[in-house]
Amino acid sequence: MKSNYDKNPSILVSDNEKECLTGWESIIGELNRQINKNSSTIVAIETYQGVNDDEVETALKEMFPSHSLYHTSEAFKSKQEIEKMVYPFVTDDRIFGFMTDLEIRDFLDSDKADQLKKQIDHDDNTLKLIYGPGASLISDTDLLIYIDMARWEIQQRMRRNEVNNLGVENKDLEAALLYKQSFFVDWRVLDRHKTAIFDDCDYFIDSNQTNRPKMITGDSLKKGLKQLNKQPFRVVPFFDPGVWGGQWLKEVVDLDRSAVNYAWGFDCVPEENSILLAFGSETFETPAINLVLKEAPDLLGNEVYKKFGAEFPIRFDFLDTMEGGNLSLQVHPNKKYIREKFGMSYTQDESYYFLDAKDDAFVYLGLNEDVAPEKMIADLKEAQETGNNFDADRHVTKWSVKKHDHILIPAGTVHCSGKDSMVLEISATPYIFTFKLWDWGRLGLDNKPRPINIEHGEQVIEWDRTTGWTGKNLVNNIEILAKGNGWVEERTGLYETNFIETRRHWFTDKVEHSTNGGVNVINLVEGREAIVESPTGKFPGFVVHYAETFIIPAAVGDYTIRPYGSSEGQKCGTIKAFVRK
Ligand SMILES: O=P(O)(O)OC[C@H]1O[C@](O)(CO)[C@@H](O)[C@@H]1O
């Protein structure tokens, strides 16, 4: 069947496409109009990580022939000082660091910043531009522009060695190391700063596409973000190959058939996805994290906001192993471990919802009844050191799985999805704290072994999660909660100590839902099309397609979902996640 999955979902903010200017020429034309209103103007151009400085500077030089340009890097501490300052958060580990509490001011050298300010004050030029992260902190300014970029685009640029970490010159490093420093340091620092200056920004520039910048006013962006909280919406998904990746997503999502595979699909990881705001036929891409940073109470609901702050606590993603391989055998840290070792306030509790599965599909989950901890760890270490096989079946329980099974994976449970299945992963947001125990003796896509973390893993494995307990508590622990005309509601997870609850609805007719004051994340797991509607006409009908994940902001309140289009009258299924009260 032809794919109907929408890879570029956008939300209409206004019919006026003139609100979104495209290309440097029209952007600088607009800025010129603002600048010419004053006899002398100081403009701060703040940048997020990843922005191509050469592209921006070339455009500025061409279009503002006589301006003075000051880089905030001139006010930054030396590279050596910054490396020393960030080291406790970056550490020597290849994957894991420690969440920083640093702020952009910590990167500035106050003497150098004073010096730069004096230079600007004494400059007679009528147009002075201060460029780079922290620009608005150097001097009082007349105009504030923010050039933004989504984290997925930053990661693409890191893989091409085009992006440095904040305040240092290290773009030639391996992409995984650049990512680690960004995850634990740069993105935290830049997001704190962006939140602080957001309301003062006159314009935002979307620089995700090289040489195709777009600009909207700060008011238009604020209006767009507020609009999102009034209705269901989707973030822009992205997909990435991996060593165990499969072939299912290519067909269902309609991805490049010539790609080796797709392993991951991220369609609700607001930290890394972006949002497309439509102004007439123009779209403006903004990092989804901006919505979370600016509009958390309406998006998440007050109680969830109180618990998590401006963080989106629920993650939906795809793990495709159809005709691929097994994920690494792995375990995730408990709350205490993740807090103490990595500075995270909550942990990676997970679940696998099977969107599809071949007859031979399976999951490794929990330990065998006769597991001997010392022996298993010794076998893992020996396999790691010698390259000999690790006999996973001897220690870990293997369960057959089928379409629509829901497997719960509280942190500490040894697990991995096997080949030939399509998982919709529904979990808490932390997502890089995977302790690999065994990677089946294979190399990664870069032909190097992927890092193994037995020394972390052995400290968090829950050894009493053995076959009997696992089967009772974690495998299809499904209970019918309510029934109505043409619908059934079931509770399917997550495990009782985890903060996410999931509800599955099977329906041939309209189902009534309510956010009950907390954000809902939903995926259409059965049926080709459904429509989300407001009983009071608060938002226009929102059509969703098979396998699409969508977000219902807490502020939406009541809504309904029913089969739509070619699915009308047919059985559909949704799985909904929310934060338990
Ligand atoms: O280590 P692997 O084999 O790449 O698997 C990683 C994946 O495993 C998971 O932790 C799922 O269990 C995902 O969150 C993560 O992306």
CATH topology of the domain at 10-228: Rossmann fold
Bound molecules: 6-O-phosphono-beta-D-fructofuranose
CATH architecture of the domain at 10-228: 3-Layer(aba) Sandwich
Mean pLDDT figure: 96
Gyration radius, rounded: 25 Å
Proportion in helices:
25-40%
Q: Unreliable runs, pLDDT <50, ≥5 residues? A: none
- Largest sheet: spatial strand order: 2-8-7-6-3-5-4
Shape: globular
Task: Describe the overall structure.
By secondary structure, this protein is of the alpha+beta class. Among the domains are: 10-228, Rossmann fold; 479-579, Jelly Rolls, CATH 2.60.120. Helices cover 28% and strands 28% of the residues. The chain is built from 17 helices and 31 strands. A 7-stranded mixed beta sheet has the order 2-8-7-6-3-5-4. Strand 22 and strand 23 form a beta hairpin. Helix 1 (24-35) crosses helix 2 (53-63) and helix 11 (288-300) packs across helix 12. The longest helix has 23 residues, at 175-197. It is globular. 49% of the residues are buried. The mean pLDDT is 96. Bound molecules: 6-O-phosphono-beta-D-fructofuranose. The site of 6-O-phosphono-beta-D-fructofuranose has 10 residues, from loops. 6-O-phosphono-beta-D-fructofuranose binds at residues 242, 244, 327-328, 330, 350, 425, 431, 434, 436.
What secondary-structure arrangement, pairings included, does this model have?
Elements: E1 10-14, E2 21-22, H1 24-35, E3 41-47, H2 53-63, E4 68-71, H3 79-90, H4 104-107, H5 110-122, E5 127-131, H6 135-138, E6 143-148, H7 151-159, H8 175-197, E7 203-206, E8 214-217, H9 218-228, E9 238-240, H10 248-254, E10 264-268, E11 274-279, E12 282-287, H11 288-300, H12 302-308, E13 314-320, E14 329-331, H13 335-342, E15 350-357, E16 362-367, H14 373-386, H15 392-395, E17 396-400, E18 406-409, E19 415-417, E20 421-428, E21 435-438, H16 454-457, H17 467-474, E22 479-484, E23 487-493, E24 500-507, E25 511-514, E26 520-526, E27 529-533, E28 542-545, E29 549-552, E30 558-563, E31 572-579
The chain binds 6-O-phosphono-beta-D-fructofuranose.
The site of 6-O-phosphono-beta-D-fructofuranose (F6P) has 10 residues, from loops.
